Predict the structure.
Amino acid sequence: MGTKLKIWKQGQFYQKLGKKIIDLPYQVNQGPSDHQIKIGGFTVQPDKDGNFLDRNYSEDELDAIHTYGVTRLVIDLYENLFEKPLKWIWQQNGSDEPLTIRIRNNDINARYLKDQKCIELDYYGPYKNWTYNCRTVDLVAHETGHAILDSILPFLNEGNAETKGLSEAFCDLTAMFIVLSQYDLCEYVIEETRGDLKLNSILTLFAAGHGFSKGPNKESRSALNDIKYNRNEWSPYHYSQVIVGLLYDLFCEKFNKNERRVNDDAENLYQIGQVWIAGITNTFMECGADSNLNDFGRKLLRCFSNEMGFIEKHLKKRKIF
Ligand SMILES: [Zn+2]
């Protein structure tokens, strides 16, 4: 028995895209919850058909349903890639406690807290309106990415700035994977960019609404960048942007040079996306505790052997090699 629920397609800052119904191929408990995730403080009841659609849900409850749905999409994406169920790091040590996602702290945080077995997606403001981090799909995907990476390669979250940069890159890439794995969003990217991926779109922009520095609805980072590696930078986000920028260049190259191109750019985007996602995930899975960007670059060359020339050129351009 499957379960239907409604999520924002991309978030509150993309009102034009609005919401959509997703159909999960399994039963979801009240909360919504399951053995892997629960929304802290919520016990939202399903409707008479077992879905989360046809009751008079409050705004708080709709946020709980949305956040659960997006987190599930991320977990399901990686479980399909790994072909096995994910277990949180504490579940590997005997606890069966699910990951709790807290969506109603009055603060500006969006973060994964291993010790508390939770993700915090706070709300803050108001500017014109309140900003709810849980409504921004890429933030939910990013923080879920941290929890997933911690369950597979825990050392990446704990290393130096460069190693942490790889983990931040994995999480921003997770947000991109979520766009690329939904055909309707691929259609929207093509519509938004008219097929020119060198223009910013929902695929390239991250963390809208997170923090005050650029205003409440400006994105914090973009995959469209030409930031070069600088070994003296202290911020993990410097290194993550170098890697995400490099991988997005590779994605654009694969999209533009696609030899099996069909007469539907959204379909091309979706198909190329699946190959790109698998290659990147494989590259990350080869990382070790002392991995840095140079090491990641060498692993990338192995996982994308057909694009070696292009990747090598761009690794040099980004000063990683
Ligand atoms: Zn992060």
